[in-house]
Amino acid sequence: MKAILRAVIVSSVALASTTSFALEKVKIGILNGASAFISLVADGKGYLKDAGIEADFVIFDSGAKMIPSIATGGLDIGIGAASSALYNAVGRGMGVKIVADALRNSPGVGQSVMVRSDLLDTGQVKSLKDLKGKTFAITAFASSEAASLDRAMRSVGYTFDDVEKLYAGFPDHVVAFQNKAIDAALTGEPFGTLAADKGVARAFMMVGEYYPNQETSVMMFASTFGDQKRELGVKFLVAYLRATSAYITARKDGFLTGPGADEIVNLLADRSSVKNVGLLKRMRANGIDPNGNLNVDALEEDFAFFKARGQIEGSVKVSDAIDLSFLKAAQQRVRQ
């Protein structure tokens, strides 16, 4: 009888243990580049598991393409640019909200204006003014890079319309520089460093020099978190903030060469699209707010750019697309 009772107790404990530690799968849309790094760190260091989350990463080639999946619940989370597609989805009543910072052009880190090496060597480009009339590569017309390019040209008395545009993804920028199809580009990492390695282009100016803390990627939640899984959304952001802290600690002078960097770099080489450890150490690190706070002023400025070019439908506002309640709850838990 005692043996039977002991077996029942052991079985019950095992069942309770399994139930207590069952992970809930969360589908996360990411891009195949540096904007995915913090979420991959959160997964690799076990912070998501600590939060009871099993990450299911789904790769997209643009943030705009995530929006329909987030709006319909095909994705729980998306990490991508706050494009006109996002605001239009919100304006049509689709369930998607910006909840936190994911990537920004902080001074000394983030994206660069890349210029073809021969134009720099011959002195044809000495300042942003010299880019007037030149062919400039950005990812898309309705992207944060487009708004950034407009800000760059306005800083020297011109506008977005004073350069020729070539719309291409970051990986294509390297080839375009090689073929001399472009003169300059707003290129994210690791592709800026790869272009420099090949000698076809060099970083001319950091975006953070003329547009400090522009929001290039944001964290977006589907309505399922608000309606059904609010607690899970808060837990995800707690894990994300822990990963953000580890990533920032690993930065030194704009590169992943600081305390704990070897662990972060090896983790990213294992999980991200950048497999070369040396490249991960040489490329510019991401900019991100340590507390996940959004630069709402930057979102408003980019939104004004989209609206001025007829990309925004109806009367939607930036504030309609933001819900900071998840982040505030996560910040409070991290401080405890």
Description of the structure:
The protein contains 16 helices and ten strands. The protein has helices at 2-20, 37-44, 47-50, 67-71, 84-91, 117-121, 144-154, 170-178, 191-197, 207-210, 223-227, 230-250, 261-271, 277-282, 296-308, 325-335, and strands spanning 24-31, 53-60, 77-80, 96-104, 112-116, 135-138, 164-167, 184-187, 201-206, 215-222. The strands form two sheets. It has a five-stranded mixed β-sheet. A five-stranded mixed β-sheet has the order 7-6-8-5-9, with helices on both faces. Helix 7 (144-154) crosses helix 15 and helix 12 (230-250) crosses helix 16 (325-335). The protein starts with a helix and ends with a helix. The model is unreliable at 1-20 (pLDDT under 50).
What's the alpha carbon Rg, rounded to whole Å? Answer: 22 Å
Read across the widest sheet, the strand sequence of neighbours is: 2-1-3-10-4
What is the helix content? 40-55%
Element-level helix/strand string: HEHHEHEHEEHEHEHEHEHEHHHHHH
CATH architectural group of the largest domain: 3-Layer(aba) Sandwich
CATH superfamily membership of the largest domain: Periplasmic binding protein-like II
Structural class: alpha/beta
What fraction of residues sit in β-strands?
15-25%
CATH secondary-structure class of the largest domain: Alpha Beta
Beginning-to-end CA distance, first to last residue = 48 Å
In oligomeric terms, what are we looking at?
single chain
CATH-assigned fold name of the largest domain: D-Maltodextrin-Binding Protein, domain 2
What coarse outline follows from CA principal-axis ratios? globular
What is the residue-averaged pLDDT? Answer: 90
| Total helical segments | 16
What is the strand tally? 10
Biggest pleated-sheet summary:
5 strands, mixed
- Integer count of domains: 2
Low-confidence stretches: 1-20
